[in-house]
Amino acid sequence: MHNCNISESNVYPSYGITIFLSIIFVWLVFISLIGNLLLCIIVFRQAAMRSGINLMLTNLAFCDFFTSLLVIPVSLLFLNTKQRCLDEVLCEITATVYTFLRLEKVQILLIITINRHRIIIKGKDGMTQSKSLTLISFSWIVSLFISLLPLLGWSKYIFEPGYIQCLSNFNEKISASYVLFITLIHIMFPSIILLLLYISILRTVRNKFLRVKQHIIVSQISRHKIFNKTIDIPFKIRTTLTLFLISLTYIVTELPLAIMNVVLFVEGLQSAQCITVYSYLVWLSYTHSVIYPVYYYFQIAKFKESVQNVTSTICRCSIFKWCSRKKWRVCPENLYIIKNRTYICTA
Q1: Residue 330, class by beta-carbon neighbours within 10 Å (0-12 exposed, 13-18 middle, 19+ buried)?
Q2: pTM, whole model, 2 decimals?
Q3: Low-confidence stretches of the chain (pLDDT beneath 70)
Q4: Among residues 87, 83, 88, which one has the least CA distance to residue 162?
Q5: Which pLDDT score, from 0 to 100, does residue 68 have?
Q6: What are phi and psi of 228, to 5 degrees?
């Protein structure tokens, strides 16, 4: 970005908008923390839930949990203080963590989508627990290596007035090139791959179900012979549609920010309007961490049941505490009447 003098009154939102955004995202952070933490607890406490795909979703929920715990609060802090409230070291740490979590999430989505493609197209489900853990470990190593490159000298994170997070210094070409590199491998190329794979999956699902409808009786649809008998294809298709919504949500919330990064890299724009738009796009990129638990609630029965159990437990505890605070007063006259009452027994 080119240096220019911009008054802070122009780059920061008004007091009313600041309060509104703060209230909204405090609630969203709360929902994201509870929802993603519950999913992790369910998978690790129930052995039946520890399938390969569920471990992948747990890793995704883990990243969303720490995004809500470590990244969004920093943006809220910048939004409300309207000044640099972190030193240089903490600024680099928060930016590195944010980059790592974004890279990890997109890699997990790619692995899940490729696995869905193999299941629907070839009828092979090779995602075992050990293979899933191996892929998760590999993705962590790759994400950690790429996110640590700025600390090795490729880029430098700084705080610019008006922005709600620490970002690379666009005044330096080497830092701007790192942002472009992250943008391409983080959202541009993965988005194209995800869309192409899901288009292929949806086309295959449509063609196969048309064949099933024409040649196989209804009683055989749930587990027919065209596919591998060991794979419940209708269940896999329902899961695939859910994962498609998850991937589509990620693309919709992250792609605008990626396009903005490319524009900043090419044009080097820095104006009050540009900073405002960039900040709103950052807020938009945070929302998928909150939307995912909503998908889990409506698509994963055990997750929905656990949420309902936790909610009912909290409600029961609240009602019990409220009732225990009430002091019931007994009328003394009733005690005297009962004490002086005589009973006549007849033979």
Answers
A1: exposed
A2: 0.78
A3: 1-12, 84-85, 170, 208-237, 268-271, 316-347
A4: 83
A5: 92
A6: -65, 130
Q: How many CB atoms are closer than 10 A to CB 235? A: 11
- What is the pLDDT, as a whole number, of residue 261? 82
Structure tokens at 94: 């928060």
C-alpha dihedral over 101, 106, 110, 111, to 10 degrees?
Answer: 10
Choose among 171, 221, 125, 173: nearest CA to 2. 171
Nearest residue to 60 via CA among 131, 142, 136: 136
pLDDT in tens, 222-263: 444 444 444 555 666 677 788 888 989 999 999 898 888 888
Spatial separation of the C-alpha atoms in residues 139 and 107, rounded to whole Å: 6
Residue the block writes with tokens 């680099």: 92
Q: Do residues 212 and 226 lie in contact, with contact meaning Cβ atoms separated by under 8 Å?
A: yes
The DSSP secondary structure of 251-277, one letter per residue, reads HHHHHHHHHHHHHHHHH----HHHHHH
Yes or no: say if 75 and 20 are a contact pair by the CB < 8 Å rule.
Answer: no
Q: Helix 233-267 vs helix 173-183: angle between axes, to the nearest 10 degrees?
A: 160
Do residues 104 and 63 make contact, with C-beta atoms less than 8 angstroms apart? yes
Count CB neighbours of 92 within 10 A: 18
Residues 95-149 have pLDDT tens digits of 899 999 999 999 999 999 998 888 888 777 778 888 999 999 999 999 999 999 8
State whether residue 157 is helix, strand or coil: strand
